[in-house]
Amino acid sequence: MFGGISVETPPYDVIAKKDTYEIRRYHKQFLAQNTYELPPNTGFTSKSTTGFFPLFNFISGNNNTQTKISMTAPVIIQQTENDNVIKRTMSFIMSPSTFKSLDQVPTANDGNIHLVEVSNSRNMACITFNMSMSTEKIAAKEKELREAAHCDGIELSSNRKDVLYFGYNPPYTIPYFRKNEICIPIINQ
C-alpha cells in the first residue's frame, strides 16, 4: 500500500549516476512473456489485465510441473504502435535466485506465454518516477530521459520496442508511493 517492494528484483550494476537518471547494466534474465494486441489509442494502463493474468496464472502453477513461482518486480512492458494496432508485451522476470538457466523454468500450459533469455549486454539509461504510469506521464518521463541523455552526449535507441517500462508495485499501492522506471538502451556514449 505504501510502496515497499518485498519481492525479488533483478540484479544490475550502476555504471554511472546522473542528475535525473542512472546508467545500468542488468545481469542475464529469464522472462515469461505475453504479447497481445489492443486497439489504437488504448491508454497505457488500460487492458493491463489482458497481459497480467495469463502470466500470473503461469507463476501460480499453470505450467507443465504445476510449480508455483515467486512473484518478482518489476513487471516489464514494451509497446509498439502503428495506425491499426498497439502491440504490447508484458514480462515477468523469473526469480534470479531460483533459476540459473532457462531449461530450469517450467513450460507454460498457455501457448501465448513464451520463455526467453535476455543477455542484457547493453547499458541502459533509466529514470525513476512515482505515481501511475498513465500515457501522459510515461511520455513526459521518456522525453525527460531522452533530453537529459542527449545533454550528456548519450544517444539512446529510437526503436520503440527497446523502451522498457518497469512497474514495481501492486495496483492497490497509493500512487504517490509507487516506483516506476523507464529504461532505454544506449547506442553511443
Describe the structure.
The protein has 189 residues and is α+β, with helices and mostly antiparallel strands. Helices cover 15% and strands 33% of the residues. It is built from two helices and ten strands. It has helices at residues 48-59, 135-151; strands spanning 12-17, 22-26, 29-38, 75-81, 86-93, 113-118, 124-129, 155-156, 164-167, 180-188. Strands 1, 2, 3, 4, 5, 6, 7, 8, 9 and 10 form a ten-stranded antiparallel β-sheet that branches. It is globular, with a radius of gyration of 16 Å. The termini are far apart. The mean pLDDT is 95.
Question: What would a concise description of this structure say?
Answer:
This protein is an alpha+beta fold and 189 residues long. It has helices at residues 48-59, 135-151, and strands at residues 12-17, 22-26, 29-38, 75-81, 86-93, 113-118, 124-129, 155-156, 164-167, 180-188. It is 15% helix and 33% strand.
Please outline the helices and strands.
Elements: E1 12-17, E2 22-26, E3 29-38, H1 48-59, E4 75-81, E5 86-93, E6 113-118, E7 124-129, H2 135-151, E8 155-156, E9 164-167, E10 180-188
Antiparallel strand pairs: 1-2, 2-7, 3-5, 3-6, 4-5, 4-9, 7-10, 8-10, 9-10
The number of helices is: 2
Structural class: alpha+beta
Terminal CA distance reads 38 Å
Low-confidence stretches: none
What fraction, in percent, of the residue positions are helical?
10-25%
Sequence of secondary-structure elements? EEEHEEEEHEEE
Overall, the morphology is globular
Taking all residues together, what is the mean pLDDT? Answer: 95
Query: Could you give a short account of the major beta sheet?
Result: 10 strands, antiparallel
Q: Please give the number of β-strands.
A: 10
- Roughly how many Å is the radius of gyration? 16 Å
> In percent terms, what proportion of residues is strand?
25-35%
